[in-house]
From TrEMBL:
Protein's recorded name: NHL repeat-containing protein
Coiled coil: none
Species the sequence originates in: Mycolicibacterium poriferae
Transmembrane segments: none
Gene3D superfamilies xrefs: TolB, C-terminal domain
MF annotations from Gene Ontology: zinc ion binding
Organism superkingdom: Bacteria
Renumbered residue ranges of the record's region Disordered: 1-20
Keywords: Repeat
Cross-referenced InterPro entries: 6-blade_b-propeller_TolB-like, NHL_repeat, TRIM-NHL_E3_ligases
Length: 377
């Protein structure tokens, strides 16, 4: 078990998904409402837990925060029932189906899902209370049956290619348009279908999609932007492929260089830890980032850990080391499940996280589960 010296009082509380008899957390041959297969996204608030059960091409919803291990979900979306799996609802079609959903959140009472490999964002005007409900809004495609990258045409400010993450920050809606190596922003909030973004961040124009702008890594480029978080006047993007988190304050109104970088010593570096210093200020494929009440969490995915800062680092370059590390015995360790058996406080490739007050939900993808951690006051 972890000690307070490194975990800062954070403890794993609830295990959602496959148990691990004998040390491996394996998915069932057939899905259930209680088990998962490679979940890559999670959202938690006081009223819901929502999981992108990515390997089963579905979203699971718990109404209320689960209190017991392996508690079954209340609702499944993307499949006709809790025992079906497969892309596009097992072949029924994309109208109610999904293909590797990732980002999930409840925003202003609306459920939003990044249906990444269908190259679209799905919106339900209310959080569904029953299974197999079709979305009310489809963004990034001309209709609910279309699933082509960039809607089958040239990349533009209204098309998407592997959108993995999103966030609503103040009045702006941001999408990590990962396959186009950019972040799109809508200043008027969640857009209407077909509405182009008014902010294209990370590329010189709406039709460009080159990795790091086709140049060396810099303060205005992305290799693999995967998750977005922040506040009314702060935008943070987990640029997983460049092993860093970029920050803009205030929000950029167009393509602009970042003001800060976390995980690298400067804007021109993209070093992959552990080949650099073994510490709490370097990353290896950080796929998720969360900010709540001034506290910052980063899923340092390939290092099998979550890093926590009690306050957002103020340094523009490099940032100070994290205050706490979860799932590893110290800041210099990075083994999958600490090179041991699966435990309540171990991780294997955490792809997603959601920070809400003293609760932290982690999509522990390699262990086919979601772990809800809590901080002792």
């Amino acid at each position: 078990m972890l000690t307070d010296e490194h975990s800062g009082g954070w403890e794993p509380r609830t295990w959602l998904g496959a148990p691990a008899p004998g040390g491996l957390a394996l998915p069932q041959a057939s899905p259930s409402m209680a088990w998962m297969y490679s979940p890559r996204g999670v959202f938690i608030d006081d009223s819901h837990v929502v999981v992108a059960d990515s390997g089963n091409h579905r979203v699971l919803i718990w109404h209320g925060v689960p209190e017991s291990d392996e508690q079954p979900a209340d609702v499944v979306l993307g499949q006709p029932d809790g025992t079906s799996e497969g892309r596009a609802a097992g072949g029924r079609g994309p109208e109610r189906g999904m293909n590797l959903p990732t980002g999930v959140a409840v925003v202003g009472g609306r459920l939003i899902v990044a249906d990444a490999w269908h190259h679209r964002i799905l919106v339900w005007d209310e959080v569904p209370q029953r299974n197999d409900v079709a979305p009310d809004v489809v963004l990034g495609q001309p209709d609910s049956s279309a699933v082509q990258p960039n809607a089958g045409r040239e990349c533009s400010a209204s098309t998407l290619y592997w959108p993995f993450g999103f966030a609503m920050l103040g009045p702006r809606f941001w999408v990590a348009d990962t396959g186009n190596r950019r972040v799109l922003g809508w200043s008027g909030g969640i857009p209407e279908p077909g509405e182009p973004a008014d902010i294209v961040l990370g590329q010189p124009g709406e039709h460009a999609r080159g990795e790091n702008r086709g140049e060396a890594v810099g303060p205005a480029s992305f290799r693999w932007p995967h998750a977005v978080t922040g506040a009314d006047e702060l935008l943070l993007v987990a640029d997983a492929g460049d092993h860093r988190v970029l920050g803009w304050s205030p929000h950029p109104g167009g393509d602009a260089p970042a003001d800060s970088v976390l995980g690298q010593q400067d804007f021109s570096s993209a070093d992959e830890w552990p080949y650099g210093p073994h510490s709490g200020d370097r990353f290896r494929f950080p796929y998720a980032v969360g900010l709540d009440q001034g506290r910052l969490a980063v899923a340092d995915t390939a290092n099998n850990r979550v890093l926590l800062w009690d306050e957002l680092p103020s340094e523009p370059l490099g940032g100070r080391p994290a205050d706490h590390v979860l799932a590893q015995p110290d800041f210099s360790s990075n083994g999958e499940n600490r090179w041991a058996l699966v435990g309540r406080d171990t991780l294997c490739w955490p792809y997603g996280l959601s920070l809400h007050g003293d609760r932290l939900a982690i999509a522990d993808s390699g262990n086919n589960r979601v772990m809800v951690w809590e901080r002792r006051r």
